[in-house]
């Protein structure tokens, strides 16, 4: 008999579709920075920086990649990488360091404002509320969404930002940290996520059950792994597991 007492969830592309909000966030926070910075310099009667959108975005990405290479332990801490890249870019384009720090921080505030504007699947809130009556719940994400500000935050008394642990999934550390905080063991827990490499395999290797959220997938599944097409199918899967001899 399978007995669960805890369920951990990935967030992006598991409880909501993430592609659209990330595209809006990526473009929006950088355009905001350029426009706000130009207006600020105009009030000071200073010439605009020679920093256009297309070239600026390309340089911003390159700088993030450089920081990830130079400081590999921070490779999963996307907020830190973005902040360092923006600071360096603005300094390189003529801003004093104090101003570069201020504007990079302001741009990341705008990033996080846009980043939390996700729309959970219609079933998500009710599903989590019902599960919370029987199981302890946690969120484990590699994304840099502000966990306490995301729309489903109230359902997760435990929330793990894996990048901030300097151990992004598939590292086992965020899973083990969540299990410790939930006061349970892998054999009594299930992880729910859309990524085969970052969610399913590390959870399964630890001894957890795993619900792989994937519309398609015809490969043979290892022990304790089950595929569902949508997170709304999770209660049916759990009921089947707990009745299974």
UniProtKB/TrEMBL annotation:
Transmembrane feature ranges: none
GO MF annotations, alphabetized: hydrolase activity
Keywords from the UniProt entry:
Hydrolase, Magnesium
Query: What cofactor does its activity depend on?
Result: Mg(2+)
The domain of life is Bacteria
The record's NCBIfam families line, in alphabetical order, gives: HAD-SF-IA-v1 (TIGR01549), HAD-SF-IA-v3 (TIGR01509)
Q: What is this protein called?
A: Hydrolase
């Amino acid at each position: 008999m399978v007995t669960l007492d805890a369920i951990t969830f990935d967030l992006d592309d598991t409880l909501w579709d993430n592609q659209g909000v990330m595209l809006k966030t990526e473009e929006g926070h950088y355009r905001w920075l350029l426009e706000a910075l130009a207006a600020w310099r105009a009030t000071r009667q200073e010439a605009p920086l020679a920093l256009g959108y297309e070239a600026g975005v390309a340089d911003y990405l390159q700088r993030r990649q450089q920081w990830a290479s130079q400081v590999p332990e921070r490779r999963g801490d996307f907020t830190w990488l973005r902040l360092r890249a923006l600071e360096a870019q603005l300094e390189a384009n003529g801003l004093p360091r104090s101003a570069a720090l201020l504007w990079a921080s302001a741009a990341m505030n705008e990033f996080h404002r846009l980043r939390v504007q996700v729309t959970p699947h219609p079933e998500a809130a009710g599903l989590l509320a019902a599960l919370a009556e029987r199981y302890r719940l946690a969120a484990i994400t590699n994304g840099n969404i502000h966990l306490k500000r995301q729309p489903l935050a109230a359902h997760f008394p435990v929330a793990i930002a894996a990048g901030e642990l300097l151990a992004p999934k598939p590292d086992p550390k965020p899973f083990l940290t969540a299990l410790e905080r939930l006061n349970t063991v892998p054999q009594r827990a299930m992880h729910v996520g859309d990524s085969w490499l970052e969610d399913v395999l590390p959870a399964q290797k630890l001894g957890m059950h795993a619900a792989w959220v994937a519309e398609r997938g015809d490969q043979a599944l290892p022990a304790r792994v089950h595929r569902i097409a949508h997170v709304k199918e999770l209660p049916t899967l759990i009921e089947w597991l707990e009745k299974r001899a």
